[in-house]
Amino acid sequence: MNPADITAATTRRALLAAALGAPFAASAQNPSKLPLLVTVSGAITEVVYALGAEAQLVGTDTTSLYPAAALHTPKVGYLRQLSAEGVLSLKPDAVIATTEAGPPVVLDQLRSAGIEVNLVKSEYTWDDVRAKVQAVGRAARREAAARELQARLDAEWAQLGQQIAAAKGAKPRVLFILSHGPSPQVAGKGTAADALIRFAGGVNALTGFTGYRPMTAEAMASASPDAILTTDEGIAALGGLDKFWQRPELALTPAYQRRAVVSLDALLLLGFGPRLPQAVRMAHQRLTA
Length: 289
Hints:
Elements: H1 3-20, H2 22-29, E1 37-40, H3 42-50, E2 57-60, H4 84-88, E3 94-98, H5 104-112, E4 116-120, H6 126-139, H7 143-165, E5 173-178, E6 185-187, H8 192-199, E7 203-204, E8 212-214, H9 217-223, E9 227-231, H10 232-237, H11 241-245, H12 254-258, E10 261-264, H13 266-270, H14 276-287
Parallel strand pairs: 1-2, 1-3, 3-4, 5-7, 5-9, 9-10
Antiparallel strand pairs: 5-6, 6-8
Helix pairs in contact: 1-2, 3-6, 6-7, 7-14
């Protein structure tokens, strides 16, 4: 190609980039530029850091509390109450979230603005973790690192499952209490807590309903749990462990007689991110001690 042809081709590319907008122009000039990300899920944010992609992270939601560096990222609000303007102001190439994110109209606005929106379905299985790793790997263009991370996590999960399956003794009846708000609730089927209890080798003491219900004396008496599982944040919200055991509903349970309570960080316990094996191991050890 002679110099005149090269000049003409360059001019055509420049005009095309201008017609399609600045993002195309930037990509044409620097095709190796890694995408900028906003994550809307504490667990998904953890995956970004686990893959070493934190330099691509321009914003996170308020559930993104780990690692500590995530606390200092620009925040786009609570995952269920996102603002399109807040996300767009950070100029991300992609948003990675779970299906709990919303409202839907905001996600549609982001798509209309040309932002890639990746939603990972929350079903509280090990495949949730795999899907989050894969979604971040694709969006961040770090597929190889994602495959390596997943292989390590799969090996750890398989070994942990064998250890828990080999554990002797009766499975403890466990009741999960969520007390972050003014009215404590208990977890039934179809919740992250229910799945965590089963993974840890226990039995959910409440299975007659799906989701969460208010904690009542009747529920405590019928559940008859051997142990209570809750979050560190929930214990703090109730004023500490002594205040927790002063709840009159708990006096009706075998767990109260033994003061058997296990509390873990909420994101670790319920996030279903790359630290899920750690959460299950800790819960199993403490519930069966």
